Amino acid sequence: MNWIENMNNALEYIEENVENNISSEEIAKVAYSSKFHFLRMFNMLTGMTLGEYIRQRKLSLAAKDIMSSNMKIIDIAYKYGYETPEAFTKAFKKLNNISPSEARKKGKNLKAIPPLSFQITVKGEERMDYKIIKKEEFKIVGLVKRVSTKNNVNFKVIPKFWDEICKNGTYNKICKSEGQLGVLGVCYDSDKEQEEFSYMIAVEGEEIQGLDNCKVITIPDCTWAVFESVGPMPNAIQKVWNRIFAEWFPATKYEHADAPELEVYLPGDPNAEDYKCEVWIPIVEKTQM
């Protein structure tokens, strides 16, 4: 079985068990994947978390039951795993802007989230070069924000975080302590089910002179796939991120290891057409294809 078939089998498993309380571990197992890799791939490829997708499918099927059956709304709520009718009504109203009882009375058109399926399009426009690096455990130090991925809040919070430290002079202090890897943007302690992660602006080491409230974390001994980004920020590096998950992972024998992701910002003008930086992805070889 290939990667695309495994992922689609996982989607079919969700559909077959959508009325049950299925875990992300069970779904990842169907895809012959680790939980961490499956959740990361799903999020990058669909733009939503696995939990969000399952919730939307449950609500879509519940809406169908409301409009096409005489089932009591309380029974529909329990059918799709809601512990109380109030919790179901709140979730239903958030998606459809109308309560279940109002929808049934008025015959309103409701939102339907169709089942997903994965397809890979081979464009062949450009080769994706990378290198594999093994690096021993090392420490990094920096400033941290806990970031939500709900409604893509992270795409607003992280640029604002960078903007703040550049404007208040903190970035210059960080640069003075940078090591061989330069300044790092680090994603770690990811909780895909709670839809949040920690983001650190950091350098190698355990101290940044002149900065208080810094946090030190350990980057484990790991194998990394390193990809070069060339072009103005942030568009160039965002394109690299997308290609890693949409093209590179499906075509290789690797999957994402449960370790931090690094963006390595090298010296230069980040707005320049030839600005170079790197994305470091922790990897392990797939145990089963």
Describe the 3D structure.
The protein is of the alpha+beta class and 289 residues long. The chain folds into 2 domains: 3-106, Homeodomain-like (Arc Repressor Mutant, subunit A); 131-285, Multidrug-efflux Transporter 1 Regulator Bmrr, Chain A (Alpha-Beta Barrel), CATH 3.20.80. The protein is built from 10 helices and 9 strands. It has helices spanning 3-16, 24-30, 35-46, 50-68, 73-79, 85-96, 100-106, 154-167, 170-176, 235-251; strands spanning 131-135, 138-148, 183-191, 196-204, 215-219, 222-230, 254-256, 261-265, 276-285. Strands 1, 2, 3, 4, 5, 6, 7, 8 and 9 form a 9-stranded antiparallel β-sheet that branches. Strand 3 and strand 4 (196-204) form a beta hairpin. Helix 1 (3-16) crosses helix 2 (24-30) and helix 5 (73-79) packs across helix 6 (85-96). The model has no long low-confidence stretch (mean pLDDT 91).
Describe how the helices and strands are arranged:
Layout: H1 3-16, H2 24-30, H3 35-46, H4 50-68, H5 73-79, H6 85-96, H7 100-106, E1 131-135, E2 138-148, H8 154-167, H9 170-176, E3 183-191, E4 196-204, E5 215-219, E6 222-230, H10 235-251, E7 254-256, E8 261-265, E9 276-285
Antiparallel strand pairs: 1-6, 2-4, 2-5, 3-4, 3-8, 6-9, 7-9, 8-9
Helix pairs in contact: 1-2, 2-3, 5-6
Shape: elongated
What's the CATH superfamily of the largest domain, by name? Regulatory factor, effector binding domain
* Mean pLDDT over the full residue set: 91
> What CATH first level of the largest domain would be assigned?
Alpha Beta
What is the CA-atom radius of gyration, in angstroms? 22 Å
Helical run tally: 10
Helix content: 40-55%
Which secondary-structure class do the elements indicate? alpha+beta
Contiguous low-pLDDT stretches (5 residues minimum) are: none
What string, H for helix and E for strand, traces the elements in order? HHHHHHHEEHHEEEEHEEE
